[in-house]
Structure prediction request, 220 residues.
Amino acid sequence: MSQTSLSRYAWGVLLWNVLVALWGAYVRATGSGAGCGSHWPTCNGEILPRAPQVETLIEFTHRATSGLAFLSVLGLFLLALRFLPKGHPARFGAGLAFLFMITESLVGASLVLFGWTAHNVSPERAVVQMVHLANTYFLLAALALTAWWASGGAPLRLKGQGAVGLALLLGLLALLFLGMSGAVTALGDLLFPVRNTLEALERSLTPGEHFLVRLRSSTP
Prediction:
């Protein structure tokens, strides 16, 4: 395989994983995370669900596409090892992407196996939801770097960047915090829906409300 073909494959893997992540957001937004029950990797104890409900179809589709994503990242890692020379940055990027893909699968499985789906309102679910989103960010970033390096892009220079490097680092940390806090807010909106912003503010200031409701007024 030529490096050009490998780079095209790497960009395709990145695109596929972006689509899988977007579908995962749709699963959460529709409350379909428990569509396959508490079974993993099977769906309601079956490899192919029979007479599935809409929620089951949504969750099963996410699992099927996630499985293909896992195989695509594994393939990228193996191809990078096979066809790129030692020391090539894309080999490191592909290995990092595969590591984050493994943790992505483990976090997704834990959500199902521990029952942190559907109407579960435990603090553990909120924490794992944030970890899940952060890991997805790292996975996509690693895939983007791999595709960039496989296409001949220059390696990143972390030293000697001065104020620009510091500003970029702070911006990335802010983006990560914004995404994680947004995940908690979205979870609160899903579990405790409101009709408008005023009602959300009133409920967040009401003593005794669930912590996800109260966090809505303090997250971006």
About this structure: The mean pLDDT is 82. The radius of gyration is 20 Å.
